[in-house]
Amino acid sequence: MKTHIKRLAITLLMSIGISMSPLTSAAQGVPPPPPDEHDQNGNQHSGNGAPIGGGMTMLLSMGAAYGGKKYYDYLKKLNNEMVD
User: Fold this and answer.
1) Tally of structural domains, the chain
2) What is the pLDDT of residues 51-74, one digit of tens each?
3) How many CB atoms lie within 10 A of CB 54?
4) CB-based contact 74:65 (threshold 8 Å)
């Protein structure tokens, strides 16, 4: 049982470290200059800012669900081996 707690603690610490890494990364200080056609026929979009929030949330939630299912199956198999 100690190895399960140790493995769970290591996994938890690694997942916290990975999830906190975007907060510590350095961002660009100055935005890029506008294109040459800027403000000739109205403001033109620079093409930056692709939305990735929804896809990232789906990816993380599906990965967490998959990991939870694998851990649940592992514990169920472990309990079945202990009973037999």
Assistant:
1) 1
2) 666 778 888 999 999 999 999 999
3) 8
4) no
Cα torsion at 31, 36, 37, 38 (round to 10°)? 30
Structural domain including 78 reads: 58-84
Helices and strands, number each (H, E), in the chain: 2, 0
CA-to-CA separations, 38 to 32, 35, 49, 60, in angstroms, rounded: 13, 6, 17, 38
Distance CA 32, CA 48 (A): 10
Statement: the pTM of the whole predicted model exceeds 0.85: no
